[in-house]
């Protein structure tokens, strides 16, 4: 099976119900600005509290790591996958992401998807924004090319990915890169 991609425009937190939603986060699991700030507003303080517990009970995160939590006060999603895009650890050599970090994040996300598909014996859904293209400064086209290569692979489970662009220009770029129409 291959992933099914649906391109959407707008606020990913307004997406249809989904098993997983990705929060492009940081190595200290702090909700801040951009997409992460939207998570803070939509999910309430319970999400940050759970993120703090995860951070305090695990080894320090590196860029590329992904941490699973509940969705706080947001009922549209079962789980939030916090992707460590930015490195905010003290003395971090490089705070901004690389394209390799995005590749690593996708591999780590896929582990959660495969586990969920195996446990439920059914299809899974993932809501995903462009990662690393805001504060991280990565080129959107380059990130989308990584997404395209990753999600065109065959996998052993059924998964629909809702790929969100914040603006019409983002969605037009997604359509050009993926060669598919927006839903």
Q: What's the Cα radius of gyration?
A: 15 Å
- CATH domain class name: Alpha Beta
Order of helices and strands: EEHHEEHEHEH
Low-confidence regions: none
By secondary-structure content and strand pairing, the structural class works out as: alpha/beta
Order of neighbouring strands in the sheet with most strands: 1-6-5-2-4-3
Q: Say which CATH homologous superfamily is assigned.
A: Leucine Aminopeptidase, subunit E, domain 1
Residue share in helix = 25-40%
What is the average per-residue confidence, as pLDDT, rounded to a whole number? 92
List keywords for this structure.
alpha/beta, 6-stranded mixed sheet, 6 strands
Give your account of this protein's structure.
The chain has 183 residues and is α/β, with parallel strands linked by helices. It has one domain: 3-Layer(aba) Sandwich (Leucine Aminopeptidase, subunit E, domain 1), CATH 3.40.220. 37% of the residues lie in helices and 23% in strands. It contains 5 helices and 6 strands. The chain has helices at 34-43, 45-57, 99-120, 140-151, 168-178; strands spanning 4-9, 18-26, 66-69, 77-86, 124-129, 159-165. Strands 1-6-5-2-4-3 form a 6-stranded mixed β-sheet, sandwiched between helices. Strand 5 (124-129), helix 4 (140-151) and strand 6 form a beta-alpha-beta unit. Helix 4 (140-151) crosses helix 5 (168-178). The longest helix has 22 residues, at 99-120. The chain starts with a strand and ends in a 5-residue tail after the last helix. 39% of the residues are buried. The model has no long low-confidence stretch (mean pLDDT 92).
């Amino acid at each position: 099976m291959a992933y099914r991609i649906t391109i959407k425009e707008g606020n990913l937190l307004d997406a249809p119900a989904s098993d997983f939603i990705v929060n492009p986060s940081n190595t200290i699991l702090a909700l801040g600005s951009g997409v992460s700030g939207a998570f803070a507003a939509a999910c309430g303080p319970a999400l940050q509290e759970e993120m703090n517990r995860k951070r305090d009970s695990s080894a320090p995160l590196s860029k590329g790591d992904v941490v699973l939590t509940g969705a706080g006060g947001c009922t549209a999603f079962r789980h939030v996958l916090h992707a460590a895009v930015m490195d905010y650890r003290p003395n971090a050599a490089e705070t901004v992401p690389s394209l390799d970090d995005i590749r690593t994040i996708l591999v780590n996300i896929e582990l959660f998807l495969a586990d969920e598909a195996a446990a439920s014996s059914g299809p899974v859904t993932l809501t995903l924004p462009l990662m690393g293209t805001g504060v991280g400064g990565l080129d959107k086209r380059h990130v989308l090319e990584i997404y395209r290569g990753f999600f065109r692979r065959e996998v052993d489970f059924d998964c629909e990915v809702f790929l969100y662009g914040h603006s019409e220009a983002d969605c037009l770029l997604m359509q050009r890169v993926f060669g598919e129409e927006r839903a």
